[in-house]
Amino acid sequence: MHSFHQPASPPMPSASRPPTLGALRAAGYRPRSVKTELRENLVAKLRRGEPLFPGVVGYDDSVVPAIVNAVLARHHFILLGLRGQAKTRILRQLVELLDAEMPVLAGSEVNDDPFAPISKYGRLLVEEAGEDAPIAWVARASRYVEKLATPDVTVADLIGDLDPIKAARGGHLLSDELTIHFGLLPRANRGIFAVNELPDLAGKVQVGLFNVMQEGDVQIKGYPVRLPLDVLLVFSANPEDYTARGKIITPLKDRIGAEILTHYPRSTEEAMAITRQEAWVERGGLPVEVPPFLAELVERIAFLARVDKRVDKRSGVSQRMPISVLETVVSNAERRALAVGEPRVVPRVSDVHAALPAMTGKMELEYEGELQGAEVVALDLVAAAAQEVFDRLWDLDALDEVVDHFDRGGVLRLAETAGAEAAWAGLQEVPGLLPALEAAELHRADDPAHNVAAAELLLEGLAAHHRISRLPGGRFARARARRAG
Q: Which distant-in-sequence residues (6+ apart) come within 8 Å of 71 by Cβ?
């Protein structure tokens, strides 16, 4: 790897990019190893107080400091976490720590440093052209190479192979370096190489990565080809697969400088911020207003799923679940608003029930969950989430007047397709409901759509507490236990 540790050269204007090796030398360009480049650019960002990973929420006091330490220490590192914890997003944003552009020998497949080429092509070019060797400029985005590990990935895919067609066209012997077809890793030279789901790589491929990290070179088809690659290796994996007796070869594990644990959002506020950022809610048609209590309910579904014994903990419940659920909830409310001619879209709890298909596909179930069925598990999670939000807003014992209405035989039907005006007219017939909304500061004068959403949450919470019953078709009636009694 490069041994240059001089301070970074200032970025060059596009109009003054040196076009040849001699011009580059005259301009005072000094190459750095990629780890040094990342470190120095990170130091500059920290001094300027710039955000390091825009759009990544909830990691400021946990994951981000650990990554900063790894980059400052010039370590290869791995992110360990369940699905949907922004691992790939973080790895891709590392590219922002690279220089905007980097000079390479024109035509090089391995981003040859003009001052110290590692490929035979690059060495021959400098020998033949000297100071007139042409220079190309590579943008930072092209210096990030990513590979999803699967069991069928071969050493040739990552490292390279001999290309008989190249040999025939160029009249070379197969043992000539010019016949090499480089794999992904050499093509990432002087950049970042990311491997997602590292444990899925076959052992012999992991040995190839270990050789790069330990010796700083690669071997192709047994030929003694030395390619001292300059690359930062970063990985992601599921913690369940990444154990001392798991699928990672011990020498490779030992060469990874930092194991950084990612995690799901630790609070509903963080989770809501992520979902608000990622979900497609504003659609350019009718204006959309998602009541805060409904957004909270959607997040609590994911939180509850992650601790439910019927859901596989090793697989996790991705943050993509609440994002997909909220998008589906808004779609169902949008469908209703278009059908009844309402001027805006305001989702209700009944729209969450309509979003079950966005939940069931996001959960891997244990045996007990499989017996009950994904839809039953999802419905239970919706009810439990509604109960948690309800408990934050209302005192159950203060709602006896509402419960008594149903105990005396009252029945209320809130059709999923009912417009806000009609639904609110029916809800106001329930004694004690309007005062309960006012007590929770959820009643809005002249806003029936919001009032219906709040009232439906109240009824869902009472049903979750078994004080009333929620029946198919959006009907609420006397609690079954009370009727039996």
A: 35, 38, 39, 42, 94, 97
